[in-house]
Amino acid sequence: MTQDDGSAALPVRMRGVVALDGTGRRILDGIDASVPARGLLLVTGSGGAGKSALLQVLAAALPLRAGEIRMGGWTPAQAVRRRAVAAVFQHDALLAGFTVFENVLLPLMQGLGLPRRPAFLRAQVLLAQFGLIDEMHRPPRRLSEGQRRRALVARAMAVQPAVLLLDDVLAALDDPGRALMRRVLAPPGGRLATVVATATRAGDLRDLADAHLVLERGVPLRDAPAIEAR
Amino acid sequence: MALAGGPIAPLTPPGTLLRVVAERLGAAALFPIEVLGMTMRLVAGMARLMVTAPIPGGNRYFHRHLLARDLSAMVFGPVPIILPLALILGTGLALALAMLTGGVLTLHGSAGLIALMAIQQVAPFLASGLLAARGALPLAVDLADMARRRQIESLGLLGVDVVMMVATPRCLALVVAACAHAALAMVVSALSAALALTLMLDLPRSVWIAAFRWVVEPGMLTSVAAQMAVASTMAVALGVVDGLDPRRRDRLALSGVARSVMLKAALIVVIINMAFTLWRIDDLPILVLR
To answer: What pLDDT is attached to residue A122?
Structure first.
């Protein structure tokens, strides 16, 4: 069951999830999936398969038209209200007027309300973990796309969410960046959050995943390759 | 041949035509509730920012940062445009009014009318229009881009109200800058008007000094400051509301946002300035009589 402070990872369970786009077309239809707390659910599919839409539903940014989603005992809206969910969306970006460091600092001071000193310390630790300590005082425009994606994940992880939603975060990364992100998503001591990650191909995340959902035009592919138990 | 199937859906969904017409005409008045609601939020946010920003160690770090950046851009950026425009308008207006009223009004009346127009009406109009365009337009485009990228949602998940965080310092900076630029435009247009009158009409210096002194009084200055504050806040509110308009998020074109905001902001600025102008126009008969 969930922790009261929302800081512990939560299991995610989806049953018969249906979502519509602005024109009333079904973009998700009958999605069933579940992942244990601290697990990684990998969602794959081609462009337009509904991967981003699924993350938006999980982030309560898109309404659920039918079915049920539970994050521990909470609906997505309840989990969002308790600051238990963080996300990096596909076209997400850092705030242009701030440095990379300030972008990571932002949720710590504004979101969590941490005092200046501990917030600065935690932001520096996170940036070091993501290999961005040398770039921390640069504006986002001076970073490569891969570095920006890493900074976005660092920003999302700053609030220590119970559920972390990552939309295609490996796409723009080079090989060292992918290796670094793998280490962050599968740390030696185990994950602190439940992760739902999307990718066009299973690729680098396949061996880290605890569950695998393959989508095609918003519908789960029933004969999707299973994830071997690790 | 009979056509099969149910009723044919209309090509234009209900309400779309009205909205398109409204946007084309810049009819901000058709969406007053959202703009007024956002104006109230901005006023509350600015009040909170002014109270908490000076507190050292408070978590207004980002607001202070943005306020400093916006103030710098708003106060110093438009100076090269405001100065020549105020100079040209002050001189042109003085000459035009002097010629029009020369045969009708007394020397004092003409000078008073010119002072009234140059200082009270034209300068605030110029400053608020220019600042609204400079403040509201980029804000609306930035917010529309952030909405398209879902930055607002992702930061909202982290507990950051990015809309108010970005818009509140911009609004406060705009109010301060608008007041400063109105004062600058008033001084420049008054001086240029006085110079033009002295050179062209051989008006005694004492006449226009008396007229300008009469026009610049605390009540008028308060009214101009209020005009600047209302116009700036409503222009920013409009920029926020229009930038975040969910009805066009999926088919977003940033140029369309800019055009729509420009038209609506211009309309709002004109309406507010006209209202204040008409409020102050009561001074005119007194001046003419004098």
So the answer is: 93
* 3-state secondary structure (DSSP) of residue B250: coil
pLDDT for B277 equals 74
Ordered by start, the domain boundaries in chain A are 1-84+165-174+196-222
Give dist(CA A74, CA A62) in Å, integer. Answer: 16
Chain B hits for A92, Cβ within 8 Å: 149-151, 154
What confidence category does residue A46 fall into, taking pLDDT thresholds of 50, 70 and 90?
A: confident
Is B17 part of a structural domain of the chain?
A: no
Q: What are the tokens at B113?
A: 């009318």
CB contact under 8 A, B159 and A110: yes
- Tell me what pLDDT residue B258 has: 75
In a domain, B132, yes or no: yes
Burial label for A211, CB within 10 Å (0-12, 13-18, 19+), is: middle
Q: In the predicted model, is pLDDT for residue B155 greater than 80? A: yes
**DSSP H or E run through B76:** helix B61-76
Q: Which amino acid is at A123?
A: A
Which of residues B121 and B59 earns the better pLDDT score? Answer: B121
Residue of B71, B85, B191 lying closest to B130 (CA atoms): B85
The answer to whether residue B116 sits within a structural domain is: yes
Query: Which domain, by its residues, includes B93?
Result: 32-52+60-289
With beta carbons less than 8 A apart as the criterion, state whether B64 and B53 touch: yes
Which residues of chain B lie closer than 8 angstroms to A137, CB-CB?
Answer: none
Structure-token pair, residue B27: 């009819």
Q: How confident is the model at residue B153 (pLDDT cuts 50, 70, 90)?
A: confident
Token pair belonging to B14: 């209900």
- Out of B65, B150, B158, name the one closest to residue A91 (CB): B150
Residue B3 lies in a domain: no
Tell whether the model's pLDDT for residue A89 goes beyond 80. yes
List, in sequence order, every beta strand (DSSP E) within B220-280.
Answer: none
**Which residues in chain B touch residue A83, judged by CB atoms under 8 angstroms apart?**
157-159
- Give the DSSP per-residue string, A34-102: EE-TT-EEEEE-STTSSHHHHHHHHTTSS---EEEEEETTB-HHHHHHTT-EEEE-TT----TTS-HHH
CB count in 10 Å sphere of residue B277: 16
Q: Between chains, do A107 and B57 touch, taking CB under 8 Å as contact?
A: no
Q: Do A89 and B62 touch (CB under 8 A)?
A: no
> Looking at the 3D structure of chain B, how many domains does it have?
1
- pLDDT interval class at B13 (50, 70, 90): very low
If one looks up domain A1-84+165-174+196-222 in CATH, what number appears?
3.40.50.300
CB contact under 8 A, B159 and A88: no
pLDDT (mean) for A197-223: 82
> In angstroms, what CA-CA distances link B13 with B6, B17, B18, B19, B51?
17, 8, 10, 11, 47
